[in-house]
Write a structure and sequence with these properties.
mainly alpha; globular; 0% strand
Length: 277
Amino acid sequence: MIATFRYEFRMQIRRPVLWIVYGLTFAAIVAIQPKTYATLNLGGGEGTVTRTAMVASATLLMSLLPIVYGCLLADRLVRDRRLGVVGILDATPTGHTARLIGKYLGTCAATVIPLALAYFGRAVAYAITEGEPSALGWAVAVFVGAIVPGLLFVGALALAGPLLMPPMLFQVLFVVYWFWGSLIPANMMPTVSHSILSPNSQYVAYGLLGYHSPELPPNVILPPEGEVYGPWPGGAALDFLRPVATESTAFLWIGVMLVLAVFVLSLARLHATRTES
């Protein structure tokens, strides 16, 4: 597993397309919302606290960069079969499960590097320009708690999906899935956006990190106990998947993402077993 991890990591991190596509998408995010990226204030008000700034930075980057992350992973698991080296790999002492885990962790770790550099680079810049070294601590908390669990599920989905369809078709469907399941407001159509099934939910930010959205008008009275994230205002389809953000629901979201990742990888392993037999 470790050998597979190291090999897959090195191979993925050296792909020029990895850096090119990430760079272009990052430039598009900055170009679309230059003021928000510069101030890290989603509400457009005067100033912001460090915690809010780090959540705002994560929100901006997680709008589009996970699309790049998922699409770049789409050909990693089917590549061995396409190159005709499955028989050679099967002849090695490495077990199928260990090889799958190594490939999953290695490719995901390499593919998330540009996203992490963009996020922590902005955190360092914020810490220097604002004189707030605590930004680095908040950045680590947001990244580990609010970003990584969702990306673990997305990585598993991106590896397993092309087993059932051509990688290019999966990439197209994945882009549609990301907008439908992460970005579209819940009152527009039935969607898992903003729910515990969405990899881009902010349950950790609201439930664990005490984040309050600066998008709310100053005269709005916030509900008690951080009840500012959950059921869609006015109601929406599938609202039962949007419990109020608390510490418990934040850990629930993390658990759901990890369970979904394991479930998808298990299906990929089962598919490989049936294909071999």
